[in-house]
Structure formats: structure tokens, C-alpha cells
Amino acid sequence: MTTTGAHQDSAGTSARSWLWWGRRRSAVLDVGLGLVSAAECALEGVRFAQAAGLAVPLGVLFGLVAGSVLVLRRRWPASVVLVSIAITPAEMGFVMAIVGLYTLAASEAPRRIIVALSGMSLLGTLIVTFVRTRQDVGADFDPGFWYVPLVSLVMSVGLTAPPLLLGLYVGARRRLMESLRERAVSLEQELSLLADRAEQQAQWARTEERTRIAREMHDVVAHRVSLMVVHAAALQAVALKDPQKAVRNAALVGDMGRQALTELREMLGVLRADDAGGAGGVAGGRPAAVGRAVAAPPVPLAAVREAAAAAAVAAAEGPSLADLEPLVEQSRLAGMAVELVVQGEVGRPYRAVVEQTAYRVVQEALTNVHKHAAGARTWVRVAHRVGEIAMQVENGPSECGVADAGLPSGGNGLVGMRERVSALGGVFLSGPTDAGGFRVSAVLPSA
Q1: I need a labelling partner for 155 at 20 to 30 A (CA). Which of 110, 270, 348, 355 fits?
Q2: 443 φ, ψ to 5°?
């Protein structure tokens, strides 16, 4: 065991390593009580020596030694009570008996030991008081047979019960405080873990939201701009030969540019709404901390809710399967020979996110055809099956030797499609065909 002084003065640690007190004032209190007990027993030792026919210095020395045992009450409370019981016949050690019983009852000693020593102390005090009272009652005074037992019982109970009950109360209160302290520490640890977990969830939500917005912006910008580039190239080729066709192509380029700007503005609006929600969560403040632990701020949970809400709104307001025909028609206007085949029950209700994912897969696949296989014949197949919806975009080899339209590519199209499909528990496959083209296939669960 260490003391407070040992923590503050490392040079004196070895000199005080035998001490068992947790605080310096506890040591001062016990030494003071030991001095009081020793003085009391020394005074009572004079009378004991005279009654026993011993030398007075011997009785005083015996009282000093016996009374000073009270200094050990925190280390060995049972031993202090045993010493007080042993010197009870000498009618000394009342301070030791009272303080020893209190310390024993408040300690962590087993209940059977507390009960046994308390009973022994009560019985010893009862016997000594009974004998002493019988001696004090003279032969000429007869108060009755009940007087001596009653006085002895009251005296013994009065000297034993109060310190015992007070010690039991203090010990129970101390154990309760320690239990509450342990629970507080455990609560601090749990709050810290919850705060870390909430921060991780918020970081995950922010990452997912950034990824989703990046995919949406990639799909919107890449497809529209790719068509614009294709139409711009066609416009340049036919500007002098066919002015009317050039005008139509210019109008298409303008329409696609406006559509791209509209969709991009919607995506940025969702992003601004997410930022505003996060800033509001920060301004909202933090809840009160418990102990030393800092409670989880509302920002992470708000970020999770905002991300989920934004994803739900974007999914609800995004494109659907009904927009596939206009999407294919835009590619036809850009000069692609594309055929759309729909099988199964058309118009079946699907979740908004399923329809949006199916649309984005077809859109990105057509964009890749514009980029890497300009002029290739393309087939778009959509099948409504029981419990799922399947889509496939396949193109043949590029016609007229045109292998690439010169459009830049970040290499994220197929990755984004796979992420979208996998997030819904679907299956995504892509790769070249035996005929020299490329095929993209995806199957999404309808529920």
C-alpha cells in the first residue's frame, strides 16, 4: 500500500512503505486515538494494580501497551476487539472497545466474525458489569433481584450496540459509494465507446453520402456531356452540307446541356442541404457530460439521419424505369443504332431506389458505348421477373473502324455500377463478348 506522502515525495517512499493508511489525516487520527486509549488504560492500570496487589508501574505499563493497540484498528480491527475483550475483566479499555467495535463493523470482515466478536464483547461487558454492580450494592440495600441484571444488561448493550450499529451503517454507506463510483466509471467507459461508435457511424455515413453524390454526378455529367460531344462532332461534320440537320443537332446539344445543368443543380442542392444540416447539428451544442466522460454530440446522429434522408429524397426524385425510352431515344438521336426490348409485366411497382439503380446502369452502359464503341449497334434488354428485375446492355463491334470517340474516361463507370447493384443485394457482370463487343448485365431484387 502507498500513502499520499509517498506519491508526492519519491525519496521517502521506502521509509513509509510499511504504513497502511491511505491518507495522512487517517494516520494522525489513529495515532491520536491510540494516545487517548493508552492514557485511559494507564490510569485504569493504577487501580487494577492496586486491586491485584501488583506494582503500580507494572499496571501503568500494562495499560500503556494494551491501550496503544488501538493504533492498529484499520489494519487488524479483529485483533483490537480481541484485546479489548481480553482486558475487560481489568475494567479498562472502554475507548478501545467502542472504537474497535465501530471499526470492525465498518470493515470488510466477514459477517460471522463481526457477530461472534460483538457477542463476545457484549457477554464480557455484561459479566464484568454484573459482578461490579453486585459488589457496589451494599448488604443494607436490597433493590430487588431484577436490579443488578437489568443494570448490567443496559450497560453492556449501551456500550456495544451504538458503535456496532454505527459501524454497520458507515460500512454499508461506504460500499454503496464505491459501487456508485464503479458504476460511474463503467458509465464513462460506455459513453466513451458510444461516442466513438457514433463518430464512426457518422464518418461512414459521410463517406457513403460522398460516394453516392459522386456516383450521381458522374452518371449525370458523363452521360449528358458524352451525348453533347457526339452531337457537337456531328454538327461540325454536317454544318456545311446539311444546315437544317446542323440546326437540329445544335438544338439537341442545347437541350442536353440544360438538362445536365438542371440535374447537376439538383445534386448540388442536396449537397448544400446536407452541409446545412451538419452545421445546424454543430450549433445545437453538446449534452452535459457525466463525470469525466464527454457524451456523444448530436452531430454524428444528425449526420446519419441527414444522409439517410438525402438518399431517400434523391431516390424518390430520381429517374425511373419509365424514363428508359426517352434515354434510349436520346442515344438514337445521337446516331446510335440502339434497340430496346422489354419483357415481362411492364408497369410493376418497384422501390424508387431499385428503379433509379436500373436506370443508372442502362445510362452508364450507353455512355460507355458512346465513349468506346461509337457507331456500334446496341441492344438494351429489360426483363421483369418474379422477385427481380434484370437488365442487359450489349453492343457489337464498332462500325466504320471507329473504335473510340475521343471522350475522356475516369475508369469509374463500371465500378460505380457494381457498387450500386451490390448495395441492393443484386448481381453485376460485365465483360467482352465473343463477337468483339461488350456486355453489361445486372439483376436487382424487386423487394
Answers
A1: 110
A2: -130, 125
Range(s) for CATH 3.30.565.10 in the chain?
320-447
Q: Which of the listed CATH numbers 3.30.750.24, 1.20.1090.10, 2.40.340.10, 3.30.565.10 matches domain 320-447?
A: 3.30.565.10
DSSP 433: -
Q: Which of 157, 158, 164 minimizes the C-alpha distance to 103?
A: 164
How, if at all, do strands 378-385 and 338-343 pair? Answer: parallel
* Single pTM value for the model: 0.46
Task: Give the separation between CA 36 and CA 92, rounded to whole angstroms.
Answer: 12
Q: How far is CA 33 from CA 28, 68, 188, in A?
A: 9, 8, 39
pLDDT tens series, the chain, 447 aa: 444 444 444 444 444 445 667 778 878 888 888 888 888 888 888 888 887 778 888 888 988 888 888 888 888 888 888 888 888 887 888 888 888 888 888 888 888 888 888 888 888 888 888 877 777 766 556 666 777 788 888 888 888 888 889 988 998 898 899 999 999 999 999 999 999 998 888 888 878 777 777 777 766 666 667 777 776 766 766 667 777 777 777 777 777 777 777 777 666 665 665 555 554 443 344 444 333 333 434 444 444 445 444 554 454 567 888 889 988 988 888 778 899 999 988 878 888 889 989 998 998 888 888 878 877 899 999 999 888 999 999 998 876 544 455 555 555 678 888 888 998 899 999 999 988 899 999 999 987
Quick count: other Cβ atoms within 10 Å of Cβ 56? 13
Contacts for 311 with CB less than 8 Å, ≥ 6 apart: 209, 212, 353
Reading the block at residue 89, the C-alpha cell is 475483566
Cell of 285: 451544442
